[in-house]
Amino acid sequence: MENKLNLSNKQSTTIIWTLLMVMPLLGMTIDLIAPSLPAISSQLNISDSLAKETFTTFLFGFAFGNFFAGFISDAYGRRNILRIGLFLFSVISIVPVLFPEINVLLASRFIQGITMGMSAIVVRAAFSDIVPKDKLVHLGAVIGMMWGLGPVIGPLIGSYLQENFGWQSCFYFFSIVSLLNFISVFFIVPETHFNRQPLKFKTIQRNMLEVLKSRTFIALPIMMGMSYSLILSFHTMAPFFIQEMLHHSPVFFGKIALLLGVGYVITTIVVKKLLRHFLASQILSISIIFFLAAAIIGLILSYFYPNSVTLLVIISLMMFIASGFIFLLSLGSGLAMFGHIIGTATAIMYLINGGLNATISFIVSLTHINNLTTIIWVYVLLMSAITIVYFYLYKPQKST
Asked: Of 162, 190, 218, which residue constitutes the final position of a domain?
């Protein structure tokens, strides 16, 4: 296969699969520890809200890591940044185990977020370096599938680790998997970026201003952030509802999360097929209205069945599917804009998306879970906000 680095077909395939094996780790760095949140709260003698902030600090770090690593890797190359990111993630993952104290845990999660953000943006860029554009579209489905494995299997793996070995085992797992990825990347993945772009702050500033002036574009990462926060809210609140209030095991929660994750992955496939026949704006309009209605109906039912696991699963599954529709369609629409400065546009997109994820996660972490109604109220508020952004900020500006 012909490629940008003049690699043989075997070399190219080996490098691509080495990078693909990093993707599941990128996808499970949040979800894996979700079943352990109640145990972290109990064993570290902290509030539930403080335990939930392990999500918030990670997400803030991830947003900043994504943003800055894109510019740096364009200027200095991919390989060393990816090596540093994976190695530091492996090392920092051990720190909370050695020093089991909440401030250490939160600081470690923030650094984990930065290193994973660095790794994520560099891996995506490396695929673009290696694979010709005509083949990159087809590889995109495989990349999405490999990343999607993380949120799908992460909670289940985490639940069994928690059940049998305690919350510290999740961080051992992170360290070992990241170290294995680091070793394979170190020996297999070469430098893939040679068309270096020096860091010119005036150019970066000009490009950023061009992107930020577009209300249409800014609406997209806002919708991405709020839609993915539907999933994050489940992983933040549901472990306490299921494990502490209803007294089910971490594995029980892990199996529910697995079901919801499978629903999300299936949604990504459905979205791609629908785009062959309908405009993204048409699908977005219908899906946003439908899933807002579903959330409102779920809220009403929750007042009659405040402790129903079945209702939790049904409504949460609807919200995972909603996230799949809204996130992917918003992402695709955003990537279609600003093709001449796609690196800057992508950096801003993921900064807004990640920053919003972190902010919403922090707000949700302060929410006291009284019953199922509390969780579904969060779903309704997020879907309502998405509806307002789409119809009053995005749609009037552009039809896609």
From this structure: 190
